[in-house]
Structures are given as structure tokens and as C-alpha cells.
Amino acid sequence: MNYIEKARVQLTELIKAAYAAAAERGELPAGIELSGSVELPRDAANGDWAANFAMANAKAFRMPPRRAAEIFASALELDGSYFCSCEIAGPGFMNFRLSPRWYAETVENVLAEGADYGRSDALGGQKIMVEFVSANPTGPMHIGNARGGVLGDALAEVLSRAGANVEREFYVNDAGNQIEKFAVSIEARYAQLIKGEDAVEFPEDGYHGDDIRALAELFRAENGDDWLDKPQRERRDAMAQFGLAHNLPQMRADLEKYNIHYDTWFYESTLHASGYVADTCGELTQRGFTYEKEGALWLRTSEIISQKLLAEGKKPEAIEKLGLKDDVLRRANGVYTYFAADIAYHRNKFAVRGFDKVINIWGADHHGHVARLKAALDALGLDGEHRLDIVLMQLVKLLRDGETVRMSKRTGKAISLADLLDEIPVDAARYFFNARAESQMEFDLGLAVRQDSENPVYYVQYAHARICTLLKNLAADGLSVPAAGEARLDLLTDPHEQELIKQLAMLPEEIRAAAADYNTGRINACVTELAARFHRFYTACRIKGAESDLAAARLTLCAAVRQALENGLSVIGVSAPESM
């Protein structure tokens, strides 16, 4: 349960009830449809909640806002509510203080909900797909995939905990030009192994990594030298499938090590084999959104986007400056483009599998692809503008001792996901990468392995472990967490206790907000602040040696904080150790 939202809703109702009472007494004009809001103030020194109803309605009331606020305050009935006082500030703000009831219920709720604390039905069971990583299977996954993996997985988790029915998907690009290039690259290395490197020219646009050479060596070891005598098409198809059969299991293994588990691995090749790509292009043609030129089939991308922008009020001259272009769907040789397959793939998500919303985590270099794909889905009548969301992920710079790192110390090659996880703990990688996707980030490899308060993941995990140790030690001394409802939580009146409880209440709100704005970094900030407030509370508020009822209440609070830390860390796929 979200006690931030409960307080917001109750305070709004209290203010509306106060207006009705004041209007009935003739102190405020009746029949006004109240506007205004209640918010958490930036500076808690002025109160726990702030309301602007007096200022928002002063014109309708025909009186100074401060006078309206005074009338509201005099009509408020706060007894038994989550609020104990209202103070008027400035031109007419109403500042409210939370009552002991709110603090007590918040702590009780955390322990009552346990592992489910933070969950809600805010998204009402929407069927949502999150597609992320979807790395090219022609080589090892890189650092961008490492960041995208965490962002996608954490986003899927916050959406799930906010009440959506979520599926995680990896789109395997096992068809098209990159697979042909993959096959040609293995073929060239295979031929060089047999004939010598000087005898066979390696394609300039081929994949030059050592992993290709290794695949060629494996292919030769298992199949011998006679594949040079096979027909070219048969040879290349066999080598592509051989390479995919080795690379895909390794990708799965690396992602599993990273604690990322997919519901579906969707293969591009199935779209071609089933005829769904051709069918999708046919549907676009039937709807009048394609044309043929020089033997190729084109999508009227510029027209679709232009019409949309005109409908939104954009001026024609501004649209012309965008330099919009049409897209080839089927080349003159009859081969469908990657864009055509991508349209078919997203059509499948909506029209066949029935997702209400689809979210893709893409690299920033895909920026130009977003409007084109949404336009194609709009042309198919699938409302791509509102049902498809793209989170564009910025670059990562790895640092060690303040210097940029491009090569793995272990392999001497460009750092892959596997290399990274050999060097730093999975928990650190996931915590560090779970920052706002729109921002470039610097990943400090040295900081990620430090075991002190400068390392944020260590700092939060240490708070959890500290509580576990505290509970264990006090239990050995005969002081255990009271049963539900037995602790005198109304005794938690110290400012350190109340600040801790207010942050404790933020987890469900931050999960809801992270699901709404796709910013999973909110969870990092939430648990980091919760850990910080716990450490301050632990320094200021004794448990052992305190009066028995107060000690029991503080012990209950510690147990609630431990649960919230565990839940928050689990959202982003980070463990909550019991000892460190």
C-alpha cells in the first residue's frame, strides 16, 4: 500500500470537506468547483505536506488567498486523520504536519505486506512488453548491452510491481544482411586457415574480431577442410547456423550470469519463413502507403510523418526543413529490408500477441529510427505514436583511476559484458548501470569494487546487513521484534525516527513514479536515501538500553527498514546480503 498516496488523497478530501463546511456557514461562496493540489514540499521544515487551494481559488472566492486559507484552516476536522496540524504560510499556503497515526500505520504496513511492499495496481493489469538488449548475435555483447540489459530488466520489474502484466523479450536478428556478412566472414577465415591468409582476401566490411577466427577454427575442427568444395550458398548457410549455434547459448549464459531472464527469445527468421514480412508489406500497400520505383517497394514515410505533423499544427516550411525521406521495404532483388522486418515484428507484437504497450530500450544511435517505425505502425492502424515507447540509452564511459578504459585487462580486447562481469560484481554492475537512460554515464571500475561508504551499492547493502546483524544480536539478548500490532509505534516521535519513516513510505511511490516516467534510477536514489537515514537514526536513537516499549518500537522500525531495503534492491536485481 502506498501511504504517500493515501495521505495525498485523504488531505484532498479533508480540504474539500472543510470548504463544504465553510460554505455552509457562509464563510466561503458555495458552488465553487475547487482547483488546487497537495504536494510534498521540498523543505520539510515548513511541514510534511503543502496545499495551494486557497491561492488557486482566491479569485473565485473574491478574497485574499491568505484570508481564504485561514477560513479553510478553521473548518478543518483533523481528529483521527493522518494529520495533526495546519499552519498558514506566505500568501496563503497551508502546511500540514503528519500525525502519529500515519507514522505507525506506515511501519505496520511494511511488515504486513512483507515482500509485496511496494506493489500496487496502478497500471491495472496492462499487458506490456519490454524488449531490450536484442544484441546482434554475430559477436560478443558490449558495454552498451550491459547498460541496456539492466535498464530494461529494472524497467520491466517496476512495471510489474506497479500492476502491469509484463513480458521480457530478446529479439534475435538471425536474418538479413548482418547474418550474410557473418557467414562471409567465417567463410573467409575458414578459407585462410586452409589456404593461408595471403591467399584469401578478407572482406573489408566483414567482422574482423578474433571471435570470428575462433568460430572458423571450431568449424574446421568439427567439419574438416572439404567445405570449400561445397556450393557457396550451402556453405554460407551452414557457417551462419554454426556461428549462431555457438554465439546464442553464450549470450544466454552471459545474461543469466547478469541475472537477466527472458520470457521470450523471438527470432527474426520466423517472420520471413512464415511470410509475415511480405504480408505486412502487402497490408501497407493495400492501405495505400507504398509505391514502386526502380523495381523496389517503398514506404511513403515522409508523407505519413508530414501529415501527422501538420495535424499537430507544425508549419509546412518547418516540416520541409526536417528532410524527411521514404524507406525501402523490398529491394529490387526481392529481398526485404531490415526496416520491413522491424515493422512486421512490431505489428506482430500488437496485432498478433495483443500487447497494450511495447517499450524498447535502444541505443542513442537509433534516434532517427523512432519516428519512422511509429509512422509505419500508425499507417497499419496500430497507433504506434501512443502504444510504442522507445527509451534511448546514452553511452557509457568506463574509467579506472580517472583514465578511460577501452580494453580488458584480462583479454587485451574491447571490453565485453563477459569481461566486465569477470572484473566487478554483478550487484555493482547492475546498481551502477541503473541510472537514467537519457544521461551519459561514467562507470568507475575502481569505485565499483570498493568496500566502503563511497561505493553506493556497498553503502546500501551494508545498511541491510547492519540491520540483520542488529536483529540477530538483540534476539540473542532476548529482545525480538514484537508480533504485529503489539509495538507502541506512537512512541516513534524523535525527528530521526520520523524522517526515516517518511523515507520508508517513499518506496511504493517511487516504484509508481519509475513505472510512469521509465526512470528506474529513482529506486537507486530511494534506497540510498533510506540507507542514509537509517545510519543517522542508528547513531541518534538507542535500542539496547532504551525503555522497553520504545526499544520494541524502534526494533519494529528497523525490521520495516530492512524489508524495504531488500524490496528496493530486488527491484533493480541487486542482492540484499545479511552479513558483510
Structure explained in plain terms:
By secondary structure, the protein is an alpha/beta fold. The chain is built from 24 helices and 15 strands. It has helices at residues 3-24, 53-56, 58-61, 65-75, 100-113, 143-161, 177-195, 210-223, 232-257, 268-273, 276-286, 301-311, 316-320, 338-352, 367-379, 384-387, 417-423, 426-433, 445-448, 456-476, 495-504, 506-517, 521-540, 548-571, and strands at 38-39, 49-51, 83-89, 93-98, 127-131, 165-172, 264-267, 290-293, 296-299, 327-330, 357-363, 388-393, 396-400, 403-404, 441-444. A hairpin with a 3-residue loop joins strand 3 (83-89) and strand 4.
Summarize the structure.
With 580 residues, the protein is α/β, with parallel strands linked by helices. Helices cover 52% and strands 12% of the residues. Strands 7-6-5-11-12 form a five-stranded parallel β-sheet, with helices on both faces. The chain has a four-stranded antiparallel β-sheet with strand order 1-2-4-3.
Entry keywords:
580 residues, 52% helix
Layout of SSEs?
Elements: H1 3-24, E1 38-39, E2 49-51, H2 53-56, H3 58-61, H4 65-75, E3 83-89, E4 93-98, H5 100-113, E5 127-131, H6 143-161, E6 165-172, H7 177-195, H8 210-223, H9 232-257, E7 264-267, H10 268-273, H11 276-286, E8 290-293, E9 296-299, H12 301-311, H13 316-320, E10 327-330, H14 338-352, E11 357-363, H15 367-379, H16 384-387, E12 388-393, E13 396-400, E14 403-404, H17 417-423, H18 426-433, E15 441-444, H19 445-448, H20 456-476, H21 495-504, H22 506-517, H23 521-540, H24 548-571
Parallel strand pairs: 5-6, 5-11, 6-7, 11-12, 13-15
Antiparallel strand pairs: 1-2, 2-4, 3-4, 8-9, 9-10, 13-14
